[in-house]
Amino acid sequence: SSDIGDLVQQVFIKLWKKIPEIDLRKMVRFRSYLAVTTKNCVYDYLRKEMRKGSGRTVAYSTDIETLEMMSVPEVNRIANEEWNHYISALAFEKIAPLFSKTAIEVFKQYLAGKDIRETADELEIGLSTAYRLRGRVKESLRSEIESLNDYLG
User: Fold this and answer.
1) Which of 19, 26, 95, 114 has the highest count of CB atoms within 10 angstroms of its CB?
2) What's the CA angle centered on 112, arms 110 and 115, to 5 degrees?
3) How far is it, in rounded angstroms, from Cα 111 to Cα 106?
4) How many other C-beta atoms lie within 10 A of the C-beta of residue 137?
């Protein structure tokens, strides 16, 4: 929505203005700083919308209360979860073309919690093949996630 785009733009503007003041040597984790900045921008946005008197005042009030109750560690936890989801999806997107459709399907079924014997039967492959395919995709994904985390921080 346009609200989300506006919020993203506000976060970038706030970060851009703060860059000269930021001492990166003292900053432990940029993602934590970004998460807190984002939380504050959302909070400011919701307060501004409430002052406008839009029809969502009750919903905005509830959102503000939720934000106020969130501690910095909680914001960091949520930011880290989102980061991990993003990195995992990006890594999977990068490795998927390297494997057969069968290998990818075995791995997807594994992630969904399906028994590997059922998956092997369904895909009409041997059990040892299913284990091998799952292991190869899993190892490649783990390695790609590690590489992306090293590269992107």
Assistant:
1) 95
2) 50
3) 9
4) 24
- Residue (of 146, 114, 152, 147) closest to 130 by Cα position: 114
What's the chain's length in residues? 153
- Give the three-class secondary structure for 153: coil
Spatial CA neighbour of 137 closest among 83, 112, 113, 101: 101
Work out the pLDDT band at 57, boundaries 50, 70, 90.
Answer: low
> Residue 63: which residues within 8 A CB-CB, separation 6 or more?
42, 46
Segment 43-54, tens digit of pLDDT: 888 778 777 766
**145 and 85 in contact (C-beta within 8 Å)?**
no
